[in-house]
Amino acid sequence: MRILDIFLASFIPVLKVLLLTILGLFLAVESVDILGAEARKHLNKVAFFVFTPSLIASSLANNVTVKSIGILWFMPLNILLTYIIGSALGWILVKITRTPRDLWGLIIGCCAAGNLGNMPLIMIPAVCKERGGPFGNADVCYNQGIAYASFSMAIGSIYMWLYVYNIVRIFSSKNPEVITKTDNIDSTIKSIAERAENVPNSHTGPLLPLNIGCSPREDCLGSPISEGKPKMPFLRRTEQCFQTLASKVNLKKVLAPSTIGAIIGFMVGVIPQLRKVLIGDSAPLQVVQDTTSLLGEATIPTLSLIVGANLLRGLKRSRIHLSIIVGIIVIRYIILPILGVCVVKGAIHFGFVNSDHKLFQFLLVLQFALPPAISIGTMTQLHGAGEGECSVIMLWTYTLASVSLTLWSIFFMWFVG
């Protein structure tokens, strides 16, 4: 009976996600067209800018305190390990399968970044509400689970736009068509130079007087020629370093609404003065917190519908071979979860994670078994490389996630319980 209870506690939440996803897919079909391209775009903006940050801010404000920070500190390190290990495995995959170079960023990103926001926000509360779970009181479990999942979403969002975004950007800029055109131009210039070398010496003078009218300290474009190393004040050099870093990393994307919501939630939860004003039955501004929580409740069903609607694009043909899809599935649903169990077991052994915090342990190992992050599709759209291929990967990985997450959840519940 215990095994049956664990199975139901694991399967029911995944089934709920699957049903919502199927509904989203149905609403996006052309004959229905309720969640068409334009509708998805606007609904995604509402979820991105309103619902998600509201859920994160309200849940963290309610449940995060100074004491809880001592529990949560290991989660950023755990997520970083999922990215590093996944990236290494993704790099091996693109080498083995000989993936086109402009798709390397997509494949490595799918192997590195799991859906650390939407899926935990959907699964953890559902698991807490099921009878027979190993996490104790349902209400306490629900509140803690939302706080843990919200923190997971915030940290995952930061890593996504600092790390995966730049990987996708770097490799998408190396489009084969662009490289071919550049090579053609280089070969043309080279052939012209070779012809010039074959011209008789009597005709090989300079075609243009390059230095006519140029100052000894200026080039032909009027720019001054530097002599030695330019002298620049330290503050100016420091400013240029920060400008260069800001140009390489899209700080606007890093400070996404979900991240800002997490910062606000932490401030309200940790600072006693703000907590007294906003949190609690006697708080003078409790209506603000209640309104924020009400908006946040729309997050989970909205995100599930959007995920299902986006999978419709994966039915189209692309350059993704079966070997690549199988490789990503093996990495995300077999290798990473096994390694995740080892990481969390080691963290418990060395005292990094308290052995009594079962729900926190469950989320840590679950972070290794999640399907690829939906945000990768947004990144491919921004750079115009691998959009169709990303949809195919999402279609297959999220279709198999219902089976994989159910099986791994059963094992993880047994592992932490």
TrEMBL record:
It is found in: Endoplasmic reticulum membrane. It is a multi-pass membrane protein. The keyword Membrane applies. GO terms for biological process: auxin-activated signaling pathway; endoplasmic reticulum to cytosol auxin transport. The chain crosses the membrane at residues 6-26, 71-94, 106-126, 146-165, 254-274, 294-312, 324-348, 360-380, 392-416. GO terms for cellular component: endoplasmic reticulum membrane. The keyword Endoplasmic reticulum applies. Keywords: Auxin signaling pathway, Endoplasmic reticulum, Membrane, Transmembrane, Transmembrane helix, Transport. PANTHER family: PTHR31651, SYMPORTER, PUTATIVE-RELATED. Involved in cellular auxin homeostasis by regulating auxin metabolism. Regulates intracellular auxin accumulation at the endoplasmic reticulum and thus auxin availability for nuclear auxin signaling. Belongs to the auxin efflux carrier (TC 2.A.69.2) family. This is Uncharacterized protein.
